[in-house]
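Open question from group meeting: does this chain pack into something compact, or does most of it stay loose? Before anyone orders reagents, we agreed to write out a predicted structure and look at it together. Recording both the input and the output here so the notebook holds the full record.
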Amino acid sequence: MIYSMTGYASRVFSYSGETYKIEVKTLNHRFLELKFRTPKEWVSLEPSIRSLFESKLKRGSVEFWVERANESKNASGLDVKINIPQAEKAMELFRELQRKFKITDPVTLKDIMSFPEVLSKPTVSSLSDESLTELKDILMEELGTVLEDLVKMRAQEGTKIKKSMLTVLEQFKNTHLRFLNLRIQMQKKSQEKIKRRLEQCFEAYTTPDAQMRALMETRIAQELAYALDKMDIEEELNRFKGHVDQIEHLMGIGGLIGKKLDFMFQEVSREINTLGNKAQDLDVSHDVIELKTWVEQLREQSLNLE
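Structure tokens returned:
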């Protein structure tokens, strides 16, 4: 199975009269990065939460947060209390400062609100050790269900990416077959082109010495073979096909293949660039441009695989 690193899952549960909503969102990342946002009194539970995540996920940026029902309803921040006695004390202190230092600026609401403990959020009663143990058991069960849903979503996304990538790889194989046929044609064209130039050279610089002519022909034949070998793309085509086969094999076995695929696509890109440089053929150049576009598309997709 191939897994995407993109996913989301959530669940609501209740404990001791409180309703909680847990949410998990994952994005692509080179390693497993865990970010938690939980109630302060849950700090002791984080090692267990972390272990559960590490057992289910291997790569990705993971955001896990918990909200109480009353917190989500009052997300605007209006769930606060005004400490009137503290506000009155603040006002008295500000006025005393005005008199002492002869400050004429008026005292504003902002000044009073900035005074410590004038505004406060409702406090949450701390949990006993026994309650935390009970909460931990419930949370681990609920979080386990959330992670199962998350993994299913990542698997579905991974299947979509795999299908898309295999479609492009079929295009790679078709292009490889077309290059094999073009290689033969390119070799014939190159041989004919060099042969015509040699004939023109002999016609322009004739020599009556048969031995010298034979030596020149031998040397030119060696240079011709060397030139044709440098222009031949057989090795690049073999490596290109080998990389494509290896990518298909990796996608077949699944698992943690994201980094491996990224490396393989870099190798494919290198072979494509060499093909374009050596071929010196217009048809091949057009196909090389298209191949480069496909490789970039595949690399972007592979970066989202676990």
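Observations to bring back to the group:
Residues 129-204 form the longest helix (76 residues).
Residues 72-77 have pLDDT under 50 and may be disordered.
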